[in-house]
Design goal:
two-stranded antiparallel ribbon, two-stranded antiparallel sheet, globular, 2 domains, mainly alpha, single chain
Length: 522
Amino acid sequence: MEKRAFVPLFCRGDVGGMTYIITNNIVNYLIVIATLSGVLGWPDAIVYGRVIPGMSIGLMLGGLYYAFMAYRLSRKEGRSDVTALPSGVSTPAMFVILYGVIMPIHYALGDPELAWSAALAACFIGGAIEFVGGFVGPWMKKSLPRAVLLGTVAGIGFIWMATQGVFDVYGDPLVGLPILVVAMIGVFGGYLFPRRIPPIVVAILGGIVYAYALGRTRFDFSGVGFYFPDPAGCLESLANGFAVVVPYLTIIIPVEIYNFIETMDNVEGANAAGDNYSVREAQFADGACTMVSALFGGVVPNTVWLGHAGLKKSGAGMGYSWLSGLVLGGAGMFGLFTFLSGLVPPAICAVTFLWCAVVMLAQAFKACEKRHYAAIGVAMVPPVAEYLFTQVSGAVGVAKVWPETLASGLSGYNEEITRLLLENGVMWNGVPAVKHGAIIVGLLLGAMTVFIIDRRLDKVAWTALSAALLSFFGFIHSAALGVYPSSPYMMGYLLVAVLCAVLHRAEKNKWLEAPDDDFEYV
């Protein structure tokens, strides 16, 4: 009987896979720590005692399960060249959750404990949405224009990640600029050092040594210990958080839709590379691991990463997946990230911010038809409102003046403060309205742009009608869910729906002439 070849438990190619998974996930950990501890001032008991171990448990389970999927595929097809799916923290979703959900909740409540409870609920809801994506994902992918989805996420990445990355680099240029250039030589120039060592790895590891030599970082083992969250306590906090997080569903739902479509795209990329994984099973796995992570204290979702084709080309198998999962799980539960947060300079996180954001932006244009570029640009704009709102509110908050919920449902300032902001040249007109449900607003505006380009005014009308319905129930343009029968946004969208329906009929009756096939708007 012929002996069938199975993927080995560990092979030489798995070393590169481990470097890819562990290095990039560590940077994500450091971003979470820097935001929660450094920016928001959450106590170590929450950050290192609950959030980081919860994240680690989710990533560990993901790594183990994807290794199991690789082993099962290897047995099914009788070959040893199967590569496990790369997985980890979803970087775009992580930024949206940190800055679009956790940060405003924290400032609104002023209570880290309650804000963490709401973040748990957001993470769990996100995992449930991703799990459901296993059933409805193919339909969503078919219904949502790719330019719309990628454009909205690119806008989030550009305004939050790229700007923060550049600003942090110039915050300490002596450290930041050399690290940035070395990393860019690899990620944008494609250069490699001897033995095919990527410059991004040299930038990260060399940057740590360089920053330490300059006295910017330190060795601190005081936080190392055993941290295992209390599931019962997390479950109670999760239940409390659901009531707080409801107004933020307009942010959570769209970003998780993006997340499960990202999983779908990346698994399809793995299929194209020769490993026939089930898209639906991967979406179920991501959703389940995210929900488990939330039950143990985690606040950011899991996803399948890009890079499967490159890992396969380098000879990675299943070993990098299960071993990386165990390493990250152990590091989180034994407090090793307390040590890393003091040792790794902010410039390294900044380089990753910039790199990921630029890749997201470039991917949005690369993966879409040229004629839909306008839709990408339009979809990128609404997320800017989130950024402006946060910056203006933070600056005005120095004077102890905070946004208030108005009768219209908008979260903004009273008439006097709004007038002062506008008179002093602050871009504030319409910002509070677009800020609420910014991701959905980006999807809607981008979709209408795509349908106009494709000369489907009937679809523009249906999209505007959907926007009117979302406005009526407060999913967009309102600070809280509810019923808003007098919403001017609902009325505006209804007018657009009627107008486009009439124009569509006019086009059918030859009263409105469609442009020629070679029409270009640029």
